[in-house]
Amino acid sequence: MGKKLLIHNDNVPNIHTLQVYREHGGYASVEKALKSMTPNDVVEEVKKSGLRGRGGAGFPTGMKWSFLAKPEGVPRYLVCNADESEPGTFKDRYLMEKVPHALVEGMITSSYALGANTAYIYIRGEYFYVSRILEKAIEEAYAAGYLGKNILGTNYSLDLYVQVGGGAYICGEETALLESLEGKRGNPRIKPPFPAIAGLYGCPTVVNNVETIAAVCPIVMMGGDEYAKIGVGRSTGTKLISASGHINKPGVYEIELGLPVEEFIYSDEYCGGIINGRKLKAVIAGGSSVPILPAELILKNDKGEPRLMTYESLSEGGFATGTMLGSGGFMVYDETTSIVKNLYTLARFYHHESCGQCSPCREGTGWMEKVLHRIVEGHGKPGDIDLLWDIQKKIEGNTICPLGDAAAWPVASAIRHFRHEFEEYINNPGKIKDVKHYYSTQSA
Amino acid sequence: MAKVTIDGHSIEVADGTTILQAARMIGGDIVPPTMCYYSKLKTSGGYCRTCIVKVTKGSEKDPRPMPKPVASCRTTVMDGMEVVNITSPEVLEARRGVVEFLLINHPLDCPICDQAGECHLQDLGYEHGLAKTRYDFPRRTFNTIDLGPYIKMHMTRCIMCFRCVKTADQITDYRVHGMLNRGDASEISTYIQKAIDNDFSGNIIDVCPVGALTDRTFRFKSRVWFTKPMDAHRNCTKCSGKVALWLKGNDVLRVTGRKDKWGEVEEFICNECRFEKKNVSDWIIEGPRHIDRHSVISANHYESLAQLKLDIGKQQKALSTKK
User: Fold this and answer.
1) ipTM of the complex
2) How far apart are CA A132 and CA A126, in angstroms?
3) Is there a single domain that holds both residue A328 and residue A355?
4) Which CATH class is domain B105-220?
5) What pTM was estimated for this model as a whole?
6) Which residue does chain A place closest to B93, by CA atoms?
């Protein structure tokens, strides 16, 4: 049984109320930080812990915090990115829904560390009911004196607000999120300047994922060094993984980083193996944007070593044979899955969510979707695979924000590892009319 | 001061200069093409991605190369920075990709487009585009909209450069148009077909790099290369009154701002000058306008004649000083 730090008490009845949460050791990090530590101490602990951003990019949080500009007389902001829109990711929702105070507590401790007196939680529109849960929790925290003026009798004050977004994927990109929070259209900004210099309302801002902020509480409580002992190498601590797809036990699991992928998929403690005893075909390890890997490459890397659930091990081999941990949206596909159809679904999503600001993403995502639609419908042309490859190559890296990359990587990896399936679709359009039937008979 | 090297050409520029501005100071082939950047408009640029370049050395202090191609119009130079543009096949390949993306949904209706001949997308297509399209789906279409009495909007031609939006924000009192929808369904439009109506609204026609915004008083009157540009001015209470007149015979077919060699107007002009003063008698004509751009207009024969006269004058002057 791995160590759990974030959702260890998620099944306690009424843990969403402040009273029960406090009985189970809640808000201790606020008391410890505010009464016995300076803001710099907290930042140092986070640095020592080696905590890395849990939203997808995996940037070291302590380093991000130390980049925050601190000019005199200018307010600083902490913004929590709860716009969890990556397909296959639902860990933040689980955390906020079950233990809302864990996020509120993390927000207070982190804001104190950064010297922010106003903090926002930007939550996606589809999580409206979760925003109500958070608002209730914040109300309780105000009443108990954890928020507002002079928290716990110290001279530190903090106001925390929940802002509901309109439900756009692009608003999960930090600068688009800030634009949306300011009341504008959620278009990503052109960087530099980075939010750490000029973010919300032009003031220095830190944007962190829900899980990152919640992880600050255990770090403050157990100390950065202790936290860094969990995990492997530069991947420290625990991570929430949203497991979905053809597995026996889909759900949110907290794992210690360093767990072998094979154990995660097949052990009864976690996913519990593939549904109906079928064979594993492919895995998208970190949310829909990261490259898909076939079974042989996700369980073992190209050198034959077993892959671990860490930032480094999953990206071993670059994009040729590796992938990314991303946001932890672990999607498992069994042998009956059509990778081409799956890719078409993803391409449709990215086409729909492109903001339209910069040319490669605006035009390229639509083009890829149309070509894939043609292939799936059985009207594919012989040059279509090369065309798709060329389009994704021209989008990747040439856009303002990472949405272009996110749209390009799934296409690239699907073609790289499953080219024969695309060829099958193009060469035998009659055969694949009934896709489900075709694939189940193929594997039998 | 910062020293920057672009394709092997070094130049010292002030801090805060962008790579593109530095390249324009050097001049020549190494200047990246631009579609959305407009030096007179703040925060413009960064959207079209045609000006992308590769930074092979970040700066003297931090010599690491930048991982991705950057938009040269929005990236400021650092001391010791090294940039590759036309010497990098990757950059040219990426730029070809961007041009292809800009053209896949463009109607290519140049034969009936008023912008033809002075269109930046045409130039870009000639220089970096493919001869044949690989896009075999129906192109996106929109209805044309009249934005008030003077401006016509062809959304099908738009490349989403946001210049007109920035112009409305920065030159005029208020903005009534902007971006609607998102992704490849996004369009520039007014709020429920509201007219754009203020004294400087006509400038959005000048800043439009393509034929998406055209002058309704000039539409279908003439191809631009049959008209002759003249510098002219008048006393105007609203603007500087310095314009370019586009004449055919003795008729003023249209009035625009004076554009420099990057296609950017020197000064924004008011609607009265642009749309209402269409007689030669309204203007004091200064002389033929030199179009410093590689285009069909600059090939106008009368201008080379003027150039010839000028050269004769120079020679005469040189001769007289010798004596």
Assistant:
1) 0.89
2) 12
3) no
4) alpha beta
5) 0.91
6) A394
